[in-house]
Amino acid sequence: MTTRPEAPLPFDIPAHPSNDDPRVTLEEQLGVWEAVPPFPPQTEREAEFYTLRDGEMLINIGPHHPSTHGVLRVVMKINGEQVVDLDPVLGYLHRGVEKIAENADYHQTISHLDPLEYVASLFCEWPAVIAYEKLLDCTVPRRAEYIRVLSGELLRISSHALALGFHALDLGGLTPILYSFIERDEIVEMLAALTGQRMLFNYFRIGGVNGDLNHEFMSRLGDWMSRAVGQVEANMTLLNENEIFVRRNRGLGTMDRETALRMCWSGPNLRATGVPFDLRRAHPYSVYPELDFDIPTREEGDALARFLLRIDEVKQSLRIIDQCLHQMPDGPVMAKLPRLLRPRPGRAFAAIESPRGEYGVYAISDGTDQPFRFRIHDPSFLHLQAFNLLMPGNLIADWMALNASLDPIMGGVDK
Amino acid sequence: MDPALRRRLEGRLGDRMTGPVRQRHDETEIRIGPADVPEVLRALYDEPDLRFRYLADLAGVDTGTAMQVVYHLWSDTTPDWLRVIADGLDRDAPRVPSITFLWKGAEWMEREAFDMFGIVFEGNRDLRRIYMPPDYRSFPLRKDFFLPDDAARSPGAGIRQMERSHSPRDATSTTLVRRSKAG
Amino acid sequence: MALTPERPALDTPAGPERSLVGGDPSAVTTPIVVANGLWSADDPAAYGGGPAGLENAHLAEIERSGAAYRDDARWGALDVIPTKADYLLDLIRMNSLWPLLSGLACCAFEMMSSATSKNDIDRWGMFPFRASPRQADVLIVAGTLTTKMAGPLLRLWEQMPEPKWSVAMGDCTCSGGRYKRSYATIQGIDRIMPVDVYVPGCPPRPEGLIYGMMKLQQLVKARRGQWDERRVGPSVPEGI
Lengths: 415, 183, 240
Description:
Chain A is an alpha+beta fold. Chain A has helices spanning 44-49, 97-102, 106-113, 121-136, 142-170, 175-195, 215-236, 243-249, 257-262, 268-271, 279-282, 303-327, 379-385, 387-390, 396-406, 410-414, and strands at 15-17, 25-27, 56-61, 73-79, 82-89, 204-205, 208-209, 346-354, 357-365, 371-377. Chain C is of the alpha/beta class.
């Protein structure tokens, strides 16, 4: 086809030829601001949201805001200080990863997935490598699986520590974030000794991992486990009994089981509502069936429950790390695969339990060396959808606490 | 790979499926037509021996000849993922019924499929763009949208000036110039 | 796959029927190039031409007359001679550069990591990450800039009062990085705003960012990168 047929849009962009120069087409100036309220409203929900009753007002939070966990813009309809309704606007970090992945080799797509959930990048690579391994019908050596679990659980501890630190930071506590960053720095230096990078690790490979455990990593890990295990828990229980923290979070954003399942929630947010759904047990992958750990759940479903649940999960992760170190088998860390990968034409879906929930990758291969379609499913995307349900009736400052307790990462939300 | 699931699906949904049940590794896949989506998913949700209550993913796919919407579901009755492919959507005007009546969380996933492909989900109360700015003019993940070497020369650019290249080297005789209606 | 990737007309996003009125599409004419008016207020619609006709037309006047960009503490042509007062002012500025909290993506975490206990940029006076652009000196753009976010970021940059500097942290802001072919990102923030220091890396280590900030301090002290000399646009010459 020579031209691309325009798909019909629900609105039109007015443009007309210039009077003084026929080569120039002038468009109506649409500035960098977006009209609030958008007029005319395009959807039912927009019409409902942007219709203001008496006493209501629209304010805009973000995209640049200290507590939006990235660039999230929320248009709030408030009546006084109380929030009546919310309209989150995403896309300020949409980088087109899925499209870039369609133009990249299979190995290259793995590194493109790292910046999605950048605090927990190994969890972003993991479902992709599992999906590719399904397409290639290759088995991963057990030592590689154990290393994957070990590094993943370390990163889960780091991610939860950061989540809790940011939770406190958004409520005004400036100290716990510094403790969280100490934990994160130690863990991330360990992983840098293992993978070569502090943050966007690019460590998992199709068929295994990039390199075996080395002396530096083991010595740092040994130091950390002997010294800081109790420290991690102490850091994170700084706020358990802080009255201000508890009173601000108790009863905030209470979600019940049925609604959480209808909203397709997953991860700690879902388990805090009482549903014991953890992909490591519900749909086991890697070597999790051989490891012994519990699935912590809480019944209340409010922000405080999510906070405490993350602390419980860190304890379980420490158990898993311990078992991994004891049960680590010998062997290769990478399966023998050809350099140029051409998987069979087919489709594969894989989902793993990331610190935020179910992280899924659906890969379609057409037999060439580039994926045909590469779909990423991010859990934080769906957690943010529940703002409309959880916020009304609360105050504006409660939005910060709710956002922090849901722990979204905008890199993943916006892809 | 769960043969019992295959039998249950063929028994319950055999008349709606447009192809055989495919199973590979830990995934089971069925194909249906787009009009059957609400009934099939409701059947999968409600049937006591199917109980696919957890929607793991909702994706749009552009195969070049047609569009698809792919649903991934999980149930506690089977160790497999279930993949439901609603195949055969028209590439120029793709429409499929929405499943927001079953899972409210599908609303944003359908918005994303609309934003990236132009698939219109009938029944979604909030079908507007979610990632791209609301005045963007293309659907980026379609197969006829090509990534150039430099995004400023993208054929599907939006209308913002920063989405276009402005250096004289890139300008041609057909450069679209944006000027305000000043004066 | 059946689709052959024939390239459509690259510069006509609206299709051929909207791009030219009259004229021969194959004729090589001198292109009309309009400079990007987003950050300069030559565009008269910037303050007074908004959708509802905003009431701050007086701001447009100030912008147009250039009074907003004039630093009254400068002495015109004598600026080239730095005095002791200038030296002292530059020392003061260099040692208390307050960054604006503008972490967009992954690099933000390394920026925060450079601000926290282990690599502490409070040693250089940069601890208070201001939330408001009116109180900030440095805009450390940390993370990928998308086309949707570019507008707000430019607003932030314009809202920062002089003297201000900007640091492009991370590969995405320096040149587009791994998103060079993406349809939704700005390939390098120097396409839309002036940049003083580029800190490459994906993400740069906190030590790398600190090195970049120290370079910025040297820039401040040596009075290079003066705001009226700054050019917008990639500083790579044309043939490259």
